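RECORD TYPE: inverse folding
INPUT: structure tokens
STRUCTURE:
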């Protein structure tokens, strides 16, 4: 019912909701009170359209998965939790993160010091030095990969969570407030009309409630449009994250290719030195030959024979097996595009140029990291990591 407060010859008429708020100063904020009423199903709620709800759900999903991918990528790049906490504090203090020695570089340092103390001219000391140099190169490659991945992948993800998402969350909270105000005005008008029907309120109370409802509806519609535009911008976020993901994969591919080259060089160095230390021992990639697949016809099967140390020792590692005449399986050949230039280490390998197309196939018992490549009348082993196999 309307309440009039007399004073100084005048009166002030209060609306229904205002009367409820005058009951006591201890009552909660009107929005909080109305939100609680909605949760208990005692108040009507303005529902958003299905498209808007889908935008909200997609935005929440994007935020949640971005957080998970970001955290796990941080673990991948820096497995040490203490180091991650330290880097986080430096970032929050807006200070440059100090350069950190990678595990590979630290291992290289220990090996070099061990070689110096145990004797750099001994076979063991020489090998320690060679491995230390390779580990140092691996550590440098890892450092470059971490730096590149942090800039091209982690930073854009953080910028979304700390920038765009905070803006979206702020506008969503404003929209929630506008909706609560709108629903409160709807209830206020409903009660005012009910009171008017009982002749307990003046007509101007209904007019006032209608005016408040129009203002609340306008503010709600305006805020809904602002929020909708921000939510639709999630599509642009996906495009940006897609580009960053491609850059992350590219940097990771480069890193693993560098590691493979460094380890391949080290393996060749150790193979040659081991042959000098242990005469008569063949060190190479020759593996026991497995029988051909049952699908291979007898006429095209490759005749294989074990290569003994006395025969293999006459040729560089890996070359002896290729001196046998091999016939590529008719159904096992496929085209491949070369990703990077590759310089053949010996006559058993085939040099490659980036972007060229070659024919490749595998032989029974062959190292899975290698294929036989053919270009014209040239043939030789090629590393799989340098190729993009085409269907």
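DESIGNED SEQUENCE:
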């Amino acid at each position: 019912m309307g309440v009039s407060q007399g004073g100084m010859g005048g009166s002030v008429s209060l609306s229904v909701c205002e009367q409820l708020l005058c009951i006591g100063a201890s009552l909660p904020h009107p929005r909080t009170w109305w939100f609680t009423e909605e949760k208990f199903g005692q108040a009507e709620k303005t529902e958003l359209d299905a498209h808007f709800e889908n935008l909200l759900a997609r935005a929440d999903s994007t935020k949640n998965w971005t957080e998970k991918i970001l955290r796990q990528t941080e673990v991948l790049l820096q497995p040490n939790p203490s180091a991650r906490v330290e880097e986080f504090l430096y970032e929050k203090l807006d200070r440059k993160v100090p350069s950190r020695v990678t595990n590979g570089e630290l291992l290289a340092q220990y090996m070099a010091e061990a070689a110096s103390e145990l004797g750099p001219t001994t076979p063991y000391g020489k090998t320690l030095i060679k491995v230390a140099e390779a580990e140092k190169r691996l550590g440098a490659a890892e450092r470059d990969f971490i730096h590149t991945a942090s800039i091209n992948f982690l930073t854009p993800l953080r910028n979304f969570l700390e920038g765009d998402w905070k803006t979206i969350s702020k506008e969503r909270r404003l929209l929630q407030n506008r909706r609560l105000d709108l629903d409160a005005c709807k209830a206020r008008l409903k009660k005012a009309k009910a009171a008017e029907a009982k002749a307990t309120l003046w007509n101007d109370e209904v007019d006032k409630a209608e005016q408040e409802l129009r203002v609340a509806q306008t503010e709600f519609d305006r805020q809904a449009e602002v929020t909708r535009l921000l939510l639709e911008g999630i599509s642009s976020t996906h495009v940006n994250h897609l580009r960053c993901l491609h850059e992350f994969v590219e940097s990771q591919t480069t890193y693993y290719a560098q590691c493979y080259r460094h380890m391949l060089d080290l393996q060749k160095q150790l193979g040659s030195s081991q042959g000098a230390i242990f005469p008569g021992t063949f060190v190479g990639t020759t593996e026991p030959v497995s029988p051909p697949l049952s699908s291979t016809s007898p006429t095209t099967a490759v005749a294989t024979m074990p290569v003994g140390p006395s025969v293999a020792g006459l040729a560089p590692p890996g070359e002896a097996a290729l001196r046998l005449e091999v016939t590529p399986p008719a159904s096992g050949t496929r085209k491949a595009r070369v990703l990077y230039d590759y310089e053949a280490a010996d006559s058993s390998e085939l040099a490659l140029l980036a972007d060229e197309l070659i024919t490749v196939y595998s032989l029974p018992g062959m190292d899975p990291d290698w294929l036989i490549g053919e270009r014209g009348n040239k043939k030789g082993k090629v590393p799989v990591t340098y190729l993009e196999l085409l269907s």
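NOTES: The radius of gyration is 37 Å.
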